[in-house]
């Protein structure tokens, strides 16, 4: 299969909410090929009228690496079609086997054209928010290799953003909780994300520079989940609370 064919299969799987087998190993897909496929996948979305709203990092915490059996940092692309309104109710049937995870989001206030340091972050990021990410692997049984998950745009499916707060650069000790119908299901501190979630912005700036992608003013960056993800269940409400950043929720039917 060509890279384009793999991108079309993954795009079709997302549209029809039908899982497909893994394809990377059988087709000799390298990590670089996988990011090419991811780009093709995004081009298909852009051709349908979607626009890029930001980027996400994946496997930035031990909890996520252990859950999914992948140990490398990955990145994916977010589009406007993935935005889910806070407080809204989403239809479970539009997805294959969706999971949700708690996230911290950052808002870019200045174009990022190179690798930035932790100290430089306040020049490029002005706001932060509590967020939920909905991930839905297009592969059967939510199982994949590193190359497969990258080709599948790192399972990106949806994101729900809370209210923007001014950037606080001292956030590692903040508590992050995920609730299903008011029952606490996952909990961590922000330090679970690369020891400091701001390090995700540093890593993304490096990766984007290496790949000649400009992160633009207004883009959203998801730092990566601090905890394992949980499967969505019909009729349930999901809420993330981050100490000092408030809360955001959505429900599924
Ligand atoms: C891949 C996406 C990982 C995160 O926050 O670590 C991710 C997956 O788990 O399917 O979004
Ligand atoms: Mg995530």
Q: Any key phrases for this structure?
A:
253 residues; alpha+beta; Fumarylacetoacetate hydrolase, domain 2; 8-stranded mixed beta sheet; 5-stranded mixed beta sheet; 6 helices; 13 strands; globular; binds 2-oxoadipic acid; binds magnesium ion
Q: Can you walk me through this structure?
A:
The chain has 253 residues and is α+β, with helices and mostly antiparallel strands. It has one domain (3-252): Alpha-Beta Complex (Fumarylacetoacetate hydrolase, domain 2), CATH 3.90.850. Helices cover 24% and strands 30% of the residues. Strands 1, 2, 4, 5, 6, 7, 10 and 11 form an eight-stranded mixed β-sheet that branches. It has a five-stranded mixed β-sheet with strand order 3-13-12-8-9, with no helix packed on it. It starts with a helix and ends with a strand. 2-oxoadipic acid binds at residues 56, 58-59, 64, 68, 101, 133, 135, 137, 149, 154-155, 224-225. 2-oxoadipic acid is lined by residues 56, 58-59, 64, 68, 101, 133, 135, 137, 149, 154-155, 224-225.
**What structural class should be given to the helix and strand makeup?**
alpha+beta
Q: What hetero molecules are in the model?
A: 2-oxoadipic acid, magnesium ion
Q: What is the CATH domain class?
A: Alpha Beta
Q: How large, in whole angstroms, is the Cα Rg?
A: 17 Å
Q: Could you spell the SSE succession in H and E letters?
A: HHEHEEEHEHEEEEHEEEE
Number of strands: 13
The major pleated sheet works out as: 8 strands, mixed
Spans of at least 5 consecutive residues with low confidence: none
Oligomeric status: single chain
Mean residue pLDDT:
97
Shape: globular
Q: What count of structural domains?
A: 1
């Amino acid at each position: 299969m060509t890279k384009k064919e793999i991108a079309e299969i993954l795009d079709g799987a997302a549209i029809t909410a039908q899982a497909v087998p893994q394809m990377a190993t059988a087709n000799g897909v390298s990590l670089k090929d996988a990011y090419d496929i991811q780009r093709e996948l995004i081009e298909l979305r852009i051709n349908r009228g979607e626009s890029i709203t930001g980027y996400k990092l994946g496997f930035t915490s031990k909890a996520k690496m252990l859950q999914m059996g992948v140990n490398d940092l990955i990145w994916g692309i977010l589009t406007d079609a993935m935005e889910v309104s806070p407080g809204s109710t989403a239809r479970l049937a539009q997805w294959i086997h969706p999971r949700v995870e708690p996230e911290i989001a950052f808002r870019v206030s200045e174009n990022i054209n190179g690798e930035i340091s932790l100290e430089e972050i306040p020049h490029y990021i002005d706001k932060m928010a509590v967020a939920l990410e909905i991930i839905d692997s297009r592969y059967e049984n939510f199982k994949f290799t590193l190359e497969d998950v990258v080709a599948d745009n790192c399972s990106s499916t949806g994101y729900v953003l809370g209210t923007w707060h001014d950037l606080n650069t001292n956030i590692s000790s903040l508590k992050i909780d995920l609730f299903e119908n008011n029952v606490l299901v996952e909990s961590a501190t922000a330090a679970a994300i690369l020891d400091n979630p701001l390090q995700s912005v540093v890593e993304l700036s490096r990766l984007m520079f290496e790949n000649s992608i400009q992160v633009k003013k207004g883009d959203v960056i998801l730092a990566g989940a601090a905890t394992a993800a949980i499967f969505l269940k019909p009729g349930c409400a999901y809420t993330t609370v981050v100490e000092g950043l408030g809360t955001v929720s959505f429900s599924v039917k």
